[in-house]
Predict the 3D structure of the following.
Amino acid sequence: MTAGAGYGPLVLVGGGEFSDGLRGLDAALLESLGGPEVAVLPTAAAFERPERAVATAAAHFEALGVKVREVPVLGRADAHQPEHVEAVRSARFLYLTGGSPLHLRSVLKETPLWEALLEAWRDGSAVAGSSAGAMVLGDPMVDPRGGAFTLGLGMLENLAVVPHLGAAAEHRTLRLAPPGVHLLGIPEQTAVVKDTGGWRADGVLPERVTIHLDGEIVPLTALP
């Protein structure tokens, strides 16, 4: 899938979401969107105290003057609940937290809630994903069990996100990258954003964002 006119901002965070290093970016997004709240899906953190992820998000965004609305989608059945689907479809800013990318993918794949997220994005809402939340949005997706590749949700094609840039699996992932796949490495508290102006890096270490394609380092403008 390729973003076109009308699509909202897409924010890929390398980890450390809801931190001071991303405060400026989030404030700018909120100002441009004009929404009164941020919908947070702690799905990836389902087995890692999801309530803590929501509380951290609430403190971060309330300091920026907006409320957080938790969308408690922790298992696959939750992604079929009409109230959760509507909460996602009507949100102006959606945030997928970190945690397990494999669990997040299994919960969202081919569900009404995933379709609602895509519909909201196509209608101009912002979608942000951090760590696991960023990993699942591309296809293929880096498999955290060893750094090889598996299927992602395909919001962005031929793009695989490597969060927490510098992790041990990174070198193996580079060797195993399929031809034509952009491997996007993002440090913590750093984001890569796609909006009407194209791709850009923001946060604490934007200069360390790295894109590999077919064994070569390429610029942000090469991203699909």
